[in-house]
Write a structure and sequence with these properties.
The complex is a heterodimer of chains A (about 80) and B (about 190).
Chain A: H1 2-13, H2 34-48, H3 54-59, H4 63-74
Helix pairs in contact in A: 1-2
Chain B: E1 4-7, E2 11-15, H1 18-21, H2 25-28, H3 32-35, H4 47-58, E3 64-70, E4 75-86, E5 91-98, H5 107-123, E6 128-134, H6 138-146, E7 150-161, E8 164-174, H7 175-181
Parallel strand pairs in B: 5-6
Antiparallel strand pairs in B: 1-2, 2-3, 3-4, 4-5, 6-8, 7-8
The chains are: A mainly alpha (about 80), B alpha+beta (about 190).
């Protein structure tokens, strides 16, 4: 699951997978701007088949928060 | 925090103050990039015009304008509003401007929209939040998609943008849909 999240982030940001880690954030990925952040939210919903609440949307701030969110929602 | 009206993780919203008016608010609404998609903002703004606008807010009964403030720094970073509030039919328009460009990272605008929707639906008891945006404004379209606004129509070729006419998209979010998504039970009305 973690790898799926990393691949998703790399795809949305348009960067090589090797540059994405669990510690990645808008501070470490230059391409991570407002538009890509919103695309990432939509991509997470589609990739994992979930619909996020507003609270969950707001909680997404970096890769680790995405992983934590997915673990809470679907486990694994 | 000063006089918070709604509080999130990254920002809080509060009533606009004279110091906001005398600050960078008027500059945001002159900036070409910031105002590109703001319907009526084609004229240069000034602190005098901003003061006049501020005076109109004091007596407004259908326009809730809130300053967006970064919680960590307590810096005024933008402005948002619920406008054209119709208290009988219970709907309003929504708009957000993150004026300070270093705060355009996604988290701030998403949280601001989240707070505004909570205000509209849970605090002001409105039924519908509607919005219009330029069809080629990808950021605006995407935030509407994130919060599940539905496109309900278009005004074809209404807007002029850098050499071409583009559509104005009309979108709506109904309270019951918003509540269902947020695991809340809508009232019987």
């Amino acid at each position: 699951m973690n790898n799926k999240v990393l691949k998703l982030v790399a795809q949305i940001m348009g960067i090589p997978l090797e540059r994405v880690t669990a510690e990645s954030s808008p501070d470490s990925i230059e391409q991570w701007d407002s538009l890509k952040h919103m695309h990432l939210v939509l991509a997470i919903e589609e990739a994992f088949g979930i619909q996020l609440t507003d609270e969950e949307i707001v909680a997404i701030k970096d890769v680790r928060s995405i992983i934590s969110l997915i673990e809470q929602r679907i486990g694994g | 925090m000063y006089n918070p009206y709604a509080v999130g993780q990254h920002v809080y919203l509060r009533h606009a103050t004279p110091s906001d008016v005398e600050g960078r608010w008027h500059e945001w609404l002159s900036d070409e990039e910031t105002t590109r998609w703001l319907g009526l903002r084609h004229w240069p703004n000034s602190v005098e015009r901003q003061r006049e606008f501020y005076e109109t807010l004091k007596k407004s009964e259908d326009r809730l304008v809130l300053s967006i403030v970064d919680k960590e720094s307590d810096q005024h970073i933008g402005v948002c509003n619920l406008s054209s509030i119709n208290w009988v039919s219970r709907y309003c328009d929504v708009a957000i401007v993150i004026g300070e460009k270093e705060f355009r990272t996604g988290a701030y605008v998403l949280e601001t929209m989240s707070l505004l929707l909570r205000i509209a639906f849970l605090r002001l008891n409105l039924r519908i939040v509607k919005s219009t945006f330029a069809a080629s404004n990808e950021a605006s379209r995407t935030i509407h998609d994130v919060f599940r606004f539905k496109e309900v129509g278009r005004l074809n070729g209404l807007l002029w943008d850098r050499g071409q006419y583009i559509d104005s998209v009309i979108a709506m979010l109904h309270r019951d849909d918003w509540m269902a998504r947020n695991n809340l039970v809508p009232p019987n009305d």
